[in-house]
């Protein structure tokens, strides 16, 4: 197989924000031609599948400005500098939902949009979740409604395009498969 690698000859940071950095790279293509690549640099994120003893998935409803819409998602958040993904998962679950766990199992990691971003998302399954009386506080700019959703309700929310992000669709399909096996 011929090499498909693109060699970077110049890299320029166009924007550096609180969460992402936008870089424009000049690259040499495998055929020798030049091209530009716009790349979003992201520190990585986690998402948590948390299912109650009553077989309801803990989800959050929040407004997503890029979509100009409110959607329903599993709890998730950005990995802080020098923070292990598992610690982020536990922290985000508690901050966003008030639930805590000491039992996190890593299920999968995947790149969310490899055509333009390097964000790596780690999905964890939370076991033995319990509601905290005094949970960690959510970020000051984060507003969510906490939902407990049955599998049938989650499938209906996908049908209605209320659940419409890849991590949450994955979580519901994982849950559906797990229920079919058990």
Automatic annotation (TrEMBL):
GO molecular function, one term: hydrolase activity
Coiled-coil zones: none
The keyword Hydrolase appears for this protein: yes
Pfam families the record matches: NUDIX (PF00293)
Cofactor dependence: Mg(2+)
GO biological process terms, semicolon-separated: nucleoside phosphate metabolic process; ribose phosphate metabolic process
Domain called Nudix hydrolase: residue spans: 40-171
Keyword annotations of the record: Hydrolase
GO CC, any one term: cytosol
Listed name of the protein: ADP-ribose pyrophosphatase
């Amino acid at each position: 197989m011929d090499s498909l690698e693109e060699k970077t000859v110049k890299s320029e940071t166009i924007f550096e924000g609180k969460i992402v950095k936008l870089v424009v790279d000049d690259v040499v293509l495998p055929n020798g031609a030049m091209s530009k690549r716009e790349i979003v640099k992201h520190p990585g994120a986690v998402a948590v599948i948390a299912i109650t003893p009553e077989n309801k998935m803990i989800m959050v409803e929040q407004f997503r400005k890029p979509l100009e819409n409110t959607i329903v998602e599993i709890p998730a958040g950005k990995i802080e500098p020098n923070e292990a993904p598992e610690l982020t998962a536990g922290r985000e679950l508690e901050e966003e939902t008030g639930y805590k766990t000491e039992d996190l199992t890593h299920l999968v990691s995947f790149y969310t949009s490899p055509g333009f971003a390097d964000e790596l998302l780690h999905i964890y399954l939370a076991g033995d979740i319990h509601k905290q009386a005094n949970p960690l506080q959510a970020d000051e700019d984060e507003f969510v409604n906490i939902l407990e959703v049955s599998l049938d309700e989650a499938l209906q929310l996908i049908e209605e395009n209320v659940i419409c992000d890849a991590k949450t669709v994955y979580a519901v399909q994982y849950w559906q498969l797990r229920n079919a096996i058990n």
